[in-house]
């Protein structure tokens, strides 16, 4: 069990640029979640996958955000035309499909939009 | 809609002492789960303890225990024999228990705990 891996750890970009983050969940986990966390706040749910299907997407996710999990393994989160308000920590978590298994989180990707 | 409230933004405790972090929640569900997660300065969120609402017995994990009061919708975390490594943000979270739901967590705003030497 190597845990949930996120890449990159930090990303600094200029406003208007596109960025893409990657998440590799624990290998046997079929559920994958993206959360966003700003300083001093709890995580906010963004989207959820079960295997390759994106089953729920938060209203927080504007049409500039898109997430994929093409083969039901790793996932990518892309933000187009970044804005300063997108600056946050983006957390990925995974869980198994059996019962209520807890979420296992990665270290997050910290995005700074200048 | 479910909400989770953590009324203590910051707390501190002396090493080896006991501290209790508060959490209240609001839901009309009868079947649900409650969690405490810890987020140290390294930023990785780690599960501390979980409680199933249908269980009357309070969950315990080593030095961590909860006081689950279902009628009062209260779910406090007690940390005994506090250690310096317990310094972190602590988040209380709620999850509906109905089969088929996406297991989305509803989070409180967190309590920043500092353990002082």
Describe this structure in words.
The complex is a heterodimer of chains A (114) and B (117). By secondary structure, chain A is mainly β. Helix content of chain A is 0%, strand content 49%. In chain A, strands 2, 4, 5, 6, 9, 10 and 11 form a seven-stranded mixed sheet that branches. A four-stranded antiparallel sheet of chain A has the order 1-3-8-7, with no helix packed on it. The mean pLDDT of chain A is 91. With 117 residues, chain B is an all-beta fold. Chain B has one domain (3-110): Immunoglobulin-like. Chain B has no helices and twelve strands. Chain B has strands at 3-5, 10-14, 19-21, 24-26, 32-39, 46-52, 60-61, 64-69, 74-79, 88-96, 106-107, 111-116. The model of chain B has no long low-confidence stretch (mean pLDDT 92). The A-B interface holds A 31, 33, 40-45, 48, 50, 55-56, 89, 91, 93, 95, 100, 102-108 and B 4, 33, 35, 42-47, 50, 52, 91, 93, 95, 97, 102-105, 107-110.
Quick overview of this protein structure:
The complex is a heterodimer of chains A (114) and B (117). Chain A has 114 residues and is mainly β.
Draw up the topology in text.
The complex is a heterodimer of chains A (114) and B (117).
Chain A: E1 5-7, E2 10-13, E3 19-24, E4 31-37, E5 44-50, E6 53-57, E7 65-68, E8 75-79, E9 88-95, E10 104-105, E11 109-113
Parallel strand pairs in A: 2-11
Antiparallel strand pairs in A: 1-3, 3-8, 4-5, 4-9, 5-6, 7-8, 9-10, 9-11
Chain B: E1 3-5, E2 10-14, E3 19-21, E4 24-26, E5 32-39, E6 46-52, E7 60-61, E8 64-69, E9 74-79, E10 88-96, E11 106-107, E12 111-116
Parallel strand pairs in B: 2-12
Antiparallel strand pairs in B: 1-4, 3-9, 5-6, 5-10, 7-8, 8-9, 10-11, 10-12
Mean pLDDT of chain B: 92
Helix content of chain B: under 10%
Tell me which CATH architecture of chain B applies here. Sandwich
**What structural class do the secondary elements of chain A suggest?**
mainly beta
Total of helices of chain A: 0
Average pLDDT, all residues of chain A: 91
Described by its quaternary structure, the protein is heterodimer
> Radius of gyration of chain A, Cα only, in angstroms?
13 Å
What share of the residues of chain B does DSSP label as strand, in percent? over 45%
CATH homologous superfamily title of chain B: Immunoglobulins
Morphology call of chain B:
globular
The profile of the biggest β sheet of chain B is:
6 strands, mixed
Encode the helix/strand succession of chain A as letters: EEEEEEEEEEE
Question: What global shape of chain A is seen?
Answer: globular
Strand content of chain A: over 45%
């Amino acid at each position: 069990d190597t845990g949930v891996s996120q890449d990159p750890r930090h990303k600094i970009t200029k406003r208007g640029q596109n960025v893409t983050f990657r998440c590799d969940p624990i290998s046997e986990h079929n559920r994958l979640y993206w959360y966003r966390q700003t300083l001093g706040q709890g995580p906010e749910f963004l989207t959820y996958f079960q295997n390759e299907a994106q089953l729920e997407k938060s209203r927080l996710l504007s049409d500039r955000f898109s997430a994929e999990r093409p083969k039901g393994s790793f996932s990518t989160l892309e933000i187009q035309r970044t804005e300063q308000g997108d600056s946050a920590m983006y957390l990925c978590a995974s869980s198994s499909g059996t019962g209520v298994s807890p979420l296992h989180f990665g270290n997050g990707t910290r995005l700074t939009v200048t | 809609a479910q909400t989770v409230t953590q009324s203590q933004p910051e707390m501190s405790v002396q090493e080896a002492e006991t501290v209790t972090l508060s959490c209240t929640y609001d839901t009309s569900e009868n079947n649900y789960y409650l969690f405490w997660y810890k987020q140290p300065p390294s930023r990785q969120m780690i599960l501390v303890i979980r409680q199933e609402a249908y269980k009357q017995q309070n969950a315990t994990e080593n030095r961590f225990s909860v006081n689950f009061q279902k009628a009062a919708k209260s779910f406090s975390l007690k940390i005994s024999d506090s250690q310096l490594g317990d310094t972190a943000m602590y988040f209380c979270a709620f999850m509906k228990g109905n089969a088929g739901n996406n297991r989305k967590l509803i989070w409180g705003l967190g309590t920043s705990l500092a353990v002082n030497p």
